[in-house]
Design goal:
The complex is a heterodimer of chains A (114) and B (117). Chain A is mostly beta strands. Chain A contains no helices and eleven strands. Chain B is mostly beta strands and 117 residues long. In chain B, strand 7 and strand 8 form a beta hairpin. The radius of gyration of chain B is 14 Å and the shape is globular. Classes of the chains: A mainly beta (114), B mainly beta (117).
Chain lengths: 114, 117
């Protein structure tokens, strides 16, 4: 089974702190994604990566950056956390060669910025 | 840009009944894919069903089926013989035909479905 894990289920940070959210997948997937999920807004794509050291902006990249140094790991970075970044963050991965286009999701990290 | 609209924020049905969740989308693309994802309470999001736009036949997966109306840009999910385990948030999602390095999903805002015992 595909497994996508995220470093924390719950995280509380203070305004202005640098925050790292880690995501690891064990299926050798080429594509990895970071979404944030907010009530009434659904999931919105922050960044995605289709290869090591490659990244593309999603729909709401402002205030975020990402890092993908190894194929299995995709990190989301909040350079200076703000209260409007309080949200649920979901990581996902997918195979770049599969015709199924299925994305596999992690359990999510609920981040609170105070 | 693509948009996906789910007009039913919440729904509830009795166990064993059939329920239909609505989804409409807007795109100028001719070749694309549509998905329904399920997010159970405190559990990971999983794929329920997918539909390729070039296929006229509606996709089915056991108790789950879709009604895909390409001209109307409508993609509803029907759950037959609903079970308590179907209680979840359901998201409709759109993806353009894949070009290398671009498998972005556009999600709707979700429908919270509750199955009542």
């Amino acid at each position: 089974d595909v497994k996508v894990t995220q470093s924390s289920r719950y995280l509380v940070k203070r305004t202005g702190e640098k925050v790292f959210l880690e995501c690891v997948q064990d299926m050798d997937h080429e594509n990895m994604f970071w979404y944030r999920q907010d009530p009434g807004l659904g999931l919105r794509l922050i960044y995605f990566s289709y290869d090591v050291k490659m990244k593309e902006k999603g729909d709401i990249p402002e205030g975020y950056s990402v890092s993908r140094e190894k194929k299995e790991r995709f990190s989301l970075i909040l350079e200076s956390a703000s209260t409007n970044q309080t949200s649920m963050y979901l990581c996902a991965s997918s195979s770049g060669s599969s015709e199924l286009y299925e994305q596999y999701f992690g359990p999510g990290t609920r981040l609170t910025v105070t | 840009a693509q948009t996906v609209t789910q007009s039913q924020p919440e729904m509830s049905v009795q166990e064993a009944e059939t329920v239909t969740l609505s989804c409409t989308y807007d795109t100028s693309e001719s070749n694309y894919y549509l998905f329904w994802y399920k997010q159970p309470p405190s559990r990971q999001m999983i794929l329920v069903i997918r539909q390729e736009a070039y296929k006229q036949q509606n996709a089915t997966e056991n108790r789950f089926s879709v009604n895909f109306q390409k001209a109307a840009k409508s993609f509803s999910l029907k759950i037959s013989d609903s079970q308590l385990g179907d209680t979840a948030m359901y998201f409709c999602a759109f993806m353009k035909h894949r070009n290398f390095g671009n498998e972005k999903l556009t999600f709707g805002t979700g429908t919270r479905l509750t199955i009542i015992p």
